[in-house]
Amino acid sequence: MSEHQNTPHIHDSHARLSLLKEHLKHDVVRCVSDALKEDLGGVLDADQDITASLIPANSMATATIITREHGVFCGQLFADEVFRQLGNQVSISWKVKDGDKVAPNQVLCELDGPARTLLTGERNAMNFIQTLSGCATETATYVEKLVGTKTRLLDTRKTIPGLRNALKYAVSCGGGYNHRIGVYDAYLIKENHIIACGGIQQAVKTAKQLNPGKPVEVETESLDELQQAIDAGADIVMLDNFTTDMMRDAVAINQGRIALEVSGNVTLDTLREYAETGVDFISVGALTKHIRAMDLSMRLK
Q1: Which of 47, 103, 211, 220 makes a 20 to 30 Å CA pair with 279?
Q2: Residues belonging to the active site
Q3: Rounded distance, CA 211 to CA 145, Å?
């Protein structure tokens, strides 16, 4: 954002998304392998699917995956990887791409290949699509509430274990932005860190000495702590559980010097009200932890 162009930014959307996609290349393989082994008794062997083995091995089939509801699609890479790891004999023709809006009964893709493989991969592929599409859809619902404001929606580290990068990617597909990916790429100095370090000033100073160039964010619970963080040279301040009036006061005190992020007590009902105070970012844990899966169905022709 223009008023913070000279600040090393914790929420540099392009750089963070690029880093996320690099991690995702490896995560897709790992996540799918884990899911398939979980389903196949600990080994990556489709012959372990005893129900699919009822079908003749040379039987071929065509299938479609459809959605039964409105939403935002996400998960193509994962579905492709499921069938790649199951022998790479299924061809998939995608009718949508990640980030596309979808409607009830819309065909997401057509699949052709061995009937056994289609049925073994069905639930695994749809588990990834339904989860990531659910996350992208919820994100898009929140983003819509922010239209007309300057505030950007952020995710958090409150993710399903093992699916951190996948869910953050889904957030980006829904129109949201990514907070730090983990505890390695940016500082988020919270209350306990501040206590252990001996105060905000010392915590920020030490952070900048140890890792110059790494963005430094400080969580604050009062306007006094906000001022301390500004004076200490933080790059961004999290306003934790501030009232709406306190948010307005924080914007006035800050005068555009650093970025302000609101966190805590954020719902669809409060989101717009908080954004209209003039803060730069609002982070919402619900995007990646209160996921309602998209309703999907695979049909063999």
Answers
A1: 211
A2: 123, 158, 190, 219, 240
A3: 36
